[in-house]
Amino acid sequence: MTVTVEQVPPAELGIHRGAHVEASDGRVGQVDEFLVNPANFHITHLVLREGHLWGKQVVTISVSAIESIKDDCVYLKLSKAELLALPHVPVHH
Question: Tens digits of per-residue pLDDT, 30-64?
Fold first, then answer.
């Protein structure tokens, strides 16, 4: 049996790959990856892939757009329309 222990410092929040992401007006997908600042190892952006809004696109969302995190779900300050306006990159498999 494997036991995973998560160590999140007090007053910090943990975000997991696969966590659901909700725009201010509904679900937009799941967290696929994180972009991390190499100087301090803090997460700077969440990466969503293949969400139903974008098809085969990659959208990076700044952590400043996060309203809250609760019950393995990331709630954003942005609407779906605002997310569509963010820069995105085609996925190449």
Answer: 898 888 889 998 888 888 865 555 556 678 899 99
Amino acid (one-letter) located at 13: L
Domain that holds residue 63: 20-90
**The pTM is what?**
0.76
What CATH number is given to the structural domain containing 59?
2.30.30.240
Report the alpha-carbon distance of residue 37 to residue 14 in Å, rounded.
16
Note whether 46 and 76 are within 8 A (CB). Answer: no
The answer to whether 62 and 28 have CB atoms below 8 angstroms apart is no
Write the single-letter amino acid at 86.
L
Quickly list DSSP for the chain.
---------TT-----TT-EEEETTEEEEEEEEEEE-TTT--EEEEEEES-TTTSSEEEEEEGGGEEEEETTEEEESS-HHHHHTS-EEE---
